[in-house]
Please model this.
Amino acid sequence: LYRDDPTIIAWNLINEPRCENWLAANKDCNKRFQSWLTEMSTHVRSLDPNHLITVGSEGFFGDSTPELMQYNPQAWARELGQDFVMNTNLPNIDFATVHAWPDNWMLPQVRGHQQI
Model:
């Protein structure tokens, strides 16, 4: 069983989740995603107390930290249902990850170097 495997460091709950909250049907996706993370991290912890758990998001800031949203790659990042601080601040989330895709996010060039 994976829960007994000492070579596994952690469970990644979901890879780069997206919930387009600009769609009318998804206006509460931040709340639903947070609820899902709480439920799934608790479930995984109950099955495997021996390994770490992380979310697996790209790390976009959301409404819980409006002062940090300026550091999102572009304005669209706040519309994807992620809230990095809120999502990783759960009792069963052990560490945070950030997935950086500077070429895909079309970050502006700054003096010949990409701004990250």
Q: What stands out?
A: The chain has a mean pLDDT of 87. The beta strands are 10-12, 52-54, 109-110, 113-114. DSSP finds three helices and four strands in the chain.
